[in-house]
Amino acid sequence: MEFERSSGVLLHPTSLPGKYGIGSLGKEVYEFIDFLSESKQKLWQICPLGPTGYGDSPYQSFSAFAGNPLLINLEVLKAEGLLSEEDLELEEEFDQGYVDYGRVINFKFPLYRKAFKKFNTAASDIEKGKFKAFCVENKEWLEDYTLFMSLKDHFNGRPWSEWEKPIKFREEDAVDRYKEELKDTIEFHKFMQYLFFEQWTKVKCYANEKGIKVIGDIPIFVAFDSADAWSNPEIFHFDERRNPTKVAGVPPDYFSKTGQLWGNPLYDWNKLKERGYDWWIDRFKIILKQADIVRLDHFRGFEAYWAVPAGEETAINGSWEEGSGADFFNVVRDKLGKLPIIAEDLGLITDEVEELRDEFEFPGMKILQFAFDTGEKNKYLPHNYDENCIVYTGTHDNDTTLGWFLNLSTDVKNYVEEYLDIEASNICWGLIEAAWSSIAVMAIAPLQDILSLDSGARMNTPGASSGNWQWRYKKDMLTDDIINKLTALTEKYRINDQFADVVNK
Question: What pTM did the predictor assign?
């Protein structure tokens, strides 16, 4: 699919401001969209929206289809009569600069249960009908997900691999018994998904009305402790006990000398092919309801993936295995049409990966923070771009631009300043201008770089087991000066001009 020249901002909704400990889908997200509109931006990129578990990573979700209940806005529930003003009183204020996930969960979930109880007793027939229709429309994934989450509650959060054998193996009698025993909890989890998708749909519609497209994100792999792995064991490489025989990761690279051992189960692509890639087709359908453009994380894994024997402590002793290749994308195109896909093609990329990307005309990614350490032929330097790529100052996995620059050697710092023709004090906006002025079809900067924040605002450090996904901006950071600077830069390079009033062309 051809994209049009445009620019925007990377910000995951958890990083929005708000008084209840985590960004959510209330007035603050609409104000952020207004900020994008006022500063002439046309793209808003997010991370995956799924429900997160241990480690809080949106790339390790309990479901590839469900939404994260923590993003449900409480003020909206109050406005709908499901919560009271008293319900939202805080004994102690939340920190406004970072997310304390444990405290947020303990505060929000009892309120969700109150809202659910009030909905059951006081909602109109129209509202109950909308809820029922949502459950019917999403039955294919919703039934498995809500049973899975209810079982996790029942088994005190233990992973499905440690559940009683009959339900671990989804024996029919056990499934039927638990569906009856846990029916109230199942209904509660369905209700939370209904609330999430009701709120998110309105947010996306508002963005589109403002001429802004949402870039969503599909992680190639799913978490082992997920509804997807538990309910679809036949599409993964599991042994007879349903333990993974090999798991996902990447070999040593820029981010880690021992590689990254992600631990995700690996797909049995032959089995998926026999089924017409049905699970993946359904996955694309749900993301295309959430977003206008789709970033495919770890695109190279569709050509070949790094398989690490289960039980290894690092990713060093893995091997490359053949992925789904062009056959998968041909089937997807045949069933869904030509999709608006961005290929995350970072890391160790081979000619075969580039050929697969180019065969389907997917734009790849260019990261400016990777551009200055290997000389003038570095593919991330703007003078080496072709038009069909997306340029970023950095991503959620990078340090902030200011943090990155401060940790460079003196020689590399000098080269950055010379290449960009800037002074060190202007490094963040210098990198943003390099992105906006390039020939890349899209240019995106994390909000942290637009705000010129240091490493304390970093979103994620790959390989670190804690301390990630916590950063939030404060409302007063989006100043008129920031809006004017971003507007001026966007107008200077005529980004977004040709489709200012067009959404989803």
Answer: 0.96
